[in-house]
Design a protein that fits this description.
CATH architecture: 3-Layer(aba) Sandwich
Shape: globular
Largest sheet: 5 strands, parallel
CATH topology: Rossmann fold
CATH superfamily: 5'-nuclease
Number of helices: 7
Structural class: alpha/beta
Strand content: 5-15%
Strand order of the largest sheet: 3-2-1-4-5
Distance between the termini: 27 Å
Order of helices and strands: EHHEHHEHHHEE
Amino acid sequence: MPMNSIVLDASAIMAVLNREPGAETLTASLLTHAVSSTVNLAEVQSKLVARGIDLDDAWTAALSPLADILDFTAEHAKTAGSLIAETRSLGLSLGDRACLALALGLQAPVYTADRSWKKLKLGIPIRVIR
């Protein structure tokens, strides 16, 4: 994994796919370094399939903004579970914490469309795209 990776959460991937406000922040240059957890890809896949998109087309779309996908490991699970104390008051989901666990493991910036993440102080850059 390149040292200059960026981590995208499901909301950032969806923003790119839907060309939502803030998606322009995730330039082609940045996306060449974009990674996501398998947990967040499951979330994106779920949203696309729920819209009626064909399973394979949804998966292709979910992968399209990313340079790589990374497995959710036992270490990520431990970190995600441990983040509940810092994130409970913000209402972050397991998927959100899985994304943060990956970013913490990589010591990489994380990109999200969820404004509540601005309040987190985890020792990694958190970039809110809108």
